[in-house]
């Protein structure tokens, strides 16, 4: 059975422990802050481990320099291996794979839409699958009219009242 015994240090050594634990905590905070500038998502784990070592040292649960570095190494490796994937998503967000390439709007050709705003001077707004698009048409279109996508120029669609024929 494991029993916990707290080590009581003389007053002179207590000051050294206080400064050593403070150094660990400050290093940990600096590592975490540095992660905001260099989003490699590695320094944050060393920062977490340094803060934990500083707290354990302050509480008197570890004392020797060897124990400090061992705890630091173990916690760094465990957090790095177990949580890096999640932290990377938080720090970097979603990034497209190179295989995803540029968006292909060709799949919208032939899609049915509804006019949202009346077309003025050949320009208006339509919705397709709940998404609003800027659209152009040579015909006069009113809100509520059904339209079909004839072509696109980037994110601007050209629409017509008549369903385009199959190619």
Question: How would you portray this structure in words?
Answer:
By secondary structure, the protein is of the alpha+beta class. It is 43% helix and 20% strand. It has helices at 11-37, 43-59, 65-92; strands at 112-120, 123-128, 131-136, 146-153, 156-160. The chain has a five-stranded mixed barrel. Helix 1 runs antiparallel to helix 2 (43-59) and helix 2 runs antiparallel to helix 3.
| SSE succession | HHHEEEEE
Mean pLDDT: 79
Q: Which structural class should the secondary elements be placed in?
A: alpha+beta
Low-confidence stretches: none
Euclidean distance between termini CA atoms = 79 Å
Task: Strand order, main sheet: write it out.
Answer: 1-2-3-5-4
| Gyration radius over CA | 31 Å
- Strand-residue proportion: 15-25%
Q: Based on Cα principal axes, name the global outline.
A: rod-shaped
The total number of structural domains is: 2
Present the secondary structure layout:
Blueprint: H1 11-37, H2 43-59, H3 65-92, E1 112-120, E2 123-128, E3 131-136, E4 146-153, E5 156-160
Parallel strand pairs: 3-5
Antiparallel strand pairs: 1-2, 1-4, 2-3, 4-5
Keyword list:
single chain; 167 residues; alpha+beta; OB fold (Dihydrolipoamide Acetyltransferase, E2P); five-stranded mixed β-barrel; 3 helices; rod-shaped
Summary?
The protein has 3 helices and 5 strands; from the N terminus they run H-H-H-E-E-E-E-E. With 167 residues, it is α+β, with helices and mostly antiparallel strands.
